[in-house]
Amino acid sequence: MAYISPALNVMMAAARKAARPLVRDLGELENLQVSMKGPADFVSSADKRTERILIEELTRARPGYGFLGEESGTIEGKDKTHRFIIDPIDGTTNFLHGIPHFAISIGLEREGQLVSALVYNPATDEMFVAEKGHGAYLNSKRLRVAARKTLAGVLAATGFPFLGDEDKDFARMQAELAAVMPVTSGIRRMGAASLDLAYVAAGRYDAFWERGLAPWDVAAGILLVKEAQGVVSDLNGGPDMLEGGTILAANDALHPQMLKLIKAAGK
Ligand code: IPD
Ligand code: CA
Ligand code: CA
User: Fold this and answer.
1) What are the φ/ψ torsions at residue 138 (nearest 5 degrees)?
2) Which atom of ligand 1 lies closest to the CA of 213?
3) Could you say which DSSP state residue 11 is in?
């Protein structure tokens, strides 16, 4: 059974509460998607509502903790040692298109260290959780990164830059794809970084890399991968993957091989 700390329990309850209207919205979006008005406003209000519910619920249970949320930015708490890092809907483009691949992502930091993590896809009811030092779980099943050691069998995930993306290095992305594609079994771009990391933790993907990410995209996923015995770094091989914007996650055998490939492609 998963070890669930009181704080993680609070995070799970908050995520389930915030997820309920999202499941209803998904049905509604299928209708809005084909209307002329389009669903963009609807989605941005769903984003804000989800973050508001999460902050309300978490604050009720843990008054004083601070927040870093995609919609609200930094909210200073009285308790300077704890901070929740929240992405209310990771995978907004999927959500907007009625594609059931998006997640609520919540990481909890204590003294600047990630200690609890949750990535929840309301559409599939998959709840990925991790507790520092106690492993990572999907629902109640213990997770471990894939065991594959050579690139040939690797299924890798990444994220492509897009219109309006701040880190619009399309040429570099193309160079990285050109390096990774011919030597691996395949690449996926599913559109939710938090779930990409959760899938690495679950051994579904062998590796995940991306540039231009924000702390709320990766906070929970970093702990999930680490607690599933995986290795996570930035794309220089350093430890700046939470704030630095780039990330590579894989098992210990594949991580150096992927890093070498991706670094060489950027030159
Ligand atoms: C996005 C997703 C996507 C990644 C983007 C993120 P959002 O988050 O994680 O997979 O490629 O860079 O911004 O906007 O859907 O919360
Ligand atoms: Ca996101
Ligand atoms: Ca988001």
Assistant:
1) -115, 115
2) 12
3) H
Domains and CATH numbers, the chain: 6-142 (3.30.540.10), 151-265 (3.40.190.80)
Amino acid at site 147? A
* List of the chain residues with pLDDT < 70: 1, 32-39, 166-167, 267
Q: Is the pTM of this model over 0.90?
A: yes
Q: What is the pLDDT of residue 34?
A: 61
**Alpha helices of the chain — where are they, by DSSP H?**
6-33, 40-61, 92-96, 170-180, 193-201, 215-227, 254-265
From the CA of 216, give the closest atom in ligand 1: 16
- The closest residue, in CA terms, to atom 15 on ligand 1 is 91
pLDDT of residue 130: 98
Q: Which ligand is nearest to the CA of 166?
A: 1
pLDDT score, position 163: 85
